Amino acid sequence: MTTNESFFYRDKIPFDQFREVIMPGLIKARAAQRRIRIWCAAASTGQEPYSLAMILKEMAAPLAGWRTEIIATDLSNEVLEKARAGLYSQFEVQRGLPIQMLMKYFTQAGDTWQISPEIKAMVQYRPLNLLADFGHLGKFDVVFCRNVLIYFDQETKISVFERLARVTEADGYLVLGAAETVVGLTEVFKPLADRRGLYVPNSAPAKAVGGAFAPLKVVAAAGPR
Fold first, then answer.
1. What average pLDDT score do residues 125-135 get?
2. Where does the chain have alpha helices with state H?
3. pTM for this predicted structure
């Protein structure tokens, strides 16, 4: 059974932290490589990865010359097809999507809204079962795995966390849903104080756990936010 509930900028805080904490930290840490990989591990109908893509697009100035990848996976091929189409109803775009982003990155098509080709092209969709091996996806700087582990039993959660740790860079980030935690389950990740839902690998070097979380001032590209 799968639950495909999703909407743009869901719960707001994870996306604020992505913009204000995670990305400034990674821009500093990856200055030499100029590459950032992001995984949305339960992408559903695409609102989460497209929300991240729009944030990255708004950060075009500090990310000029960088390669950013968003890999979005889900168990259901049906929801992935909808995500790839990038076509949403009026109800769907009214759930969490700021009007400025709607007008900037969507085109109305009758009773629906089509996301722009430039945002759609930023996300790669692939079918994946989290209970299967996902090591072939490679390493990621950020993993969004929100509102899916709550449906798993404790043993399965622990297994998924351990495998997520293997694909998360040592100074990378794991983002969980508001009702999810690693506390009491595993020590492969540790929570960040005062950063709800944000975790780092337990092997993260001290400089990543300390310096990266003081938000840096990043000047976004001109345009509505």
1. 95
2. 13-17, 23-29, 47-58, 77-85, 90-94, 99-105, 117-120, 154-167, 206-210
3. 0.87
